Amino acid sequence: MAKKSIFKSLTMGIFIAATLSACGGSTATANHENNTLESADLLEDSFEAYTRWPTRPVTVVVPFAAKDDDADFYARLYAPLLEKALGQPFIVVNVEGANGTLGAAKVSIAHPDGYTLLFYTTYNLFYNILSGQTELSHHDFSLACITILQDDTESAYFFAFPPESDPAILQLFSDAVGELRVSDSFLPREYAMDAIDSLWHIKEESRE
Question: Which tens digit of pLDDT belongs to each residue from 112-124?
Answer without folding.
Answer: 999 999 999 999 9
